[in-house]
Amino acid sequence: GAVVSQHPSRVICKSGTSVKIECRSLDFQATTMFWYRQFPKQSLMLMATSNEGSKATYEQGVEKDKFLINHASLTLSTLTVTSAHPEDSSFYICSARGRAANYGYTFGSGTRLTVV
Amino acid sequence: QQQVKQSPQSLIVQKGGISIINCAYENTAFDYFPWYQQFPGKGPALLIAIRPDVSEKKEGRFTISFNKSAKQFSLHIMDSQPGDSATYFCAASMYGETSGSRLTFGEGTQLTVNP
């Protein structure tokens, strides 16, 4: 089955620094990547959608200059949290979907970001 | 119109019992209805999904019931086990439109199965 690898699983960074999260589709070509943020005991909140080779489309209220998304290849998308602050601490999850219309949505294992 | 309403927020059942989680949607263009299981600190994993051309789909202990006219679908977990204790999310999307069609998630249900 389709597998999406997300790294790192946990990261602690100092306030003001940047953190990059990687999401790789291991056995299929991910034409679309979705990035979510999840707060404790809440549902997944879509942050942005990116198509390979195109700029990401951000959801209303999501700062595109703070959350930089790159989807330069069909197997890799990255989310960079720039100038991180404690309020950016959260669980970030990527999801990938392949080219064919019958490809489902495959989720990564998530990244726990803690900004201190 | 994009919302998916999920209930209950939390559910406690005894081992061997039936767990039932319900979802309702508004957008009649939705044509893909998956259920995801999420354990703490992990990403969601697809449990089972249904398209609107069938009213029920069963995979092992998990069954989706779908009522197109009522715009509702539900997850039934038969013979619930302590290992089923997790958060369950329903979702919906316009599946075949393009690969970029987003999933709209329900609020989630915290299921606890007591031994």
Structure, explained:
The complex is a heterodimer of chains A (116) and B (115). Chain A has 116 residues and is mainly β. Chain A contains no helices and eleven strands. Helix content of chain A is 0%, strand content 55%. In chain A, the strands form two sheets. In chain A, strands 2, 4, 5, 6, 9, 10 and 11 form a seven-stranded mixed β-sheet that branches. In chain A, strands 1-3-8-7 form a four-stranded antiparallel β-sheet, with no helix packed on it. Chain A is globular, with a radius of gyration of 13 Å. The relative contact order of chain A is 0.34. Chain B has 115 residues and is mainly β. Chain B is built from no helices and eleven strands. In chain B, the strands form two sheets. In chain B, strands 2, 4, 5, 9, 10 and 11 form a six-stranded mixed β-sheet that branches. In chain B, strands 1-3-8-7-6 form a five-stranded antiparallel β-sheet, with no helix packed on it. Chain B starts with a strand and ends with a strand. The mean pLDDT of chain B is 94. Chain A binds chain B through residues 6, 31-32, 34, 41-44, 46, 49, 51, 91, 93, 95, 97-110, 112, and chain B through 34, 36, 41-46, 49, 89, 93, 95-96, 98-100, 102-103, 105-108, 110.
Question: Main attributes?
Answer:
heterodimer, A: 116 residues, mainly beta, 4-stranded antiparallel sheet, 0% helix, B: 115 residues, 6-stranded mixed sheet, 5-stranded antiparallel sheet, 51% strand, globular
* Uncertain segments of chain B: none
Main sheet specs of chain B? 6 strands, mixed
Q: What is the end-to-end distance of chain B?
A: 40 Å
Mean pLDDT of chain B: 94
Shape of chain A: globular
Order of helices and strands of chain A: EEEEEEEEEEE
Radius of gyration of chain A: 13 Å
Largest Cβ-defined interface: A-B, 29 and 23 residues
Order of helices and strands of chain B: EEEEEEEEEEE
Number of continuous helical runs of chain B: 0
What percent of the residues of chain A sit in helical stretches (DSSP H or I)?
A: under 10%
The percent of residues in helical segments of chain B reads under 10%
Low-confidence stretches of chain A: none
